[in-house]
Fold:
Amino acid sequence: MTIPTLTVRGFDIFKELLDAHAQAEMLGDLRDVARLAPPFSPQTPYGKPMSVQLTSAGKYGWFSDATGYRYVQQHPNGKTWPTIPPSVLKVWQQLVDHSRLPDCCLINFYGEGARMGLHQDKDEADFSWPVLSISLGDEGLFRIGNTSRGGKTESLWLSSGDVVVMGGEARLTYHGVDRIKFGSSSLLSKGGRINLTLRVVD
Ligand code: SIN
Ligand code: MN
Structure:
């Protein structure tokens, strides 16, 4: 069993679970995904594009437009999403489960100034499955709130190779990323942060 480095409001945080070699291998696999499914900045239902660029792997990918946020089975280019790379699935198998694998890997890219507002992940069918998050590249200031909007929050920096498991009581806890420390990691030569979230959707 792998023991979390710390637990904050039910979020299990595994600092530097991925070493430099594992990070580089995963990055190579993500480049292959991005070639087949190029990252894009979807429109939010509020009319503005998201500040992050995103793409997905697996049966489902994340999408939004004027009608709302949802899972879809095709990239905007009309093709099905690429499969989730084994280097990514391995982390799920290590920390979550061997029998059921995630059917969505959302890949968010945070360039300079990108952020993600506080939100819940609540579009999946079964909340008994956790969401597993992997951070690569520049540090990101991750904010953890409560299971309803408002109230006090706690923030911590996530760095390259850190993994967070959001499950159990914390599965519906609000979370977001206030900012990144652009250029703080050398993993991506042009800077930026990548966050992967593995989800069981149906
Ligand atoms: C997310 O909640 O989808 C992203 C979290 C992160 O970027 O760390
Ligand atoms: Mn989320």
